Amino acid sequence: MAIHLIGLALLMGAIISIYLPMISQSAKILGSGPMANIPFFAVALVSSIVIAIGTGSRGGEFQKIGALPLGLLTAGVMSAGMIIGSSYLIPRIGIGAFFVLLVSGQVLAGMVFGYFGMFGVPASAMTTGKVLGALLVIAGVYLVTFK
After folding, report:
1. Res. 144: pLDDT tops 80
2. DSSP state of 120
3. What is this structure's pTM?
């Protein structure tokens, strides 16, 4: 795997560790997780449009949005749930436990999705190393969340 891709993925992880607590703070100020979503998604929509236009997308590409299968649009619902859920959980369980559980869920789900080739990802074999890695993830969750 190329080093620049690893660096980008690490940067994205760092950004998640910044923006989810920021949204949690917005929910605290606004008094509601769902209300914190509104300005977040408004800014995200405007930013996405500007980036799309800035990278060369034109009217034809925007028209294709209407052709997306409805099932794929549920990702927006999932995103809203992630934001509302993080706004609720971070103040209650702490940021460290939240991120350990979040990443662990990603690792474990990724293993299952990869094994079965779900959601358009290539199927990959379940290996002893992957199973041991998953067990270490679970052990890490225990150590971080239950001290």
Report:
1. yes
2. G
3. 0.78
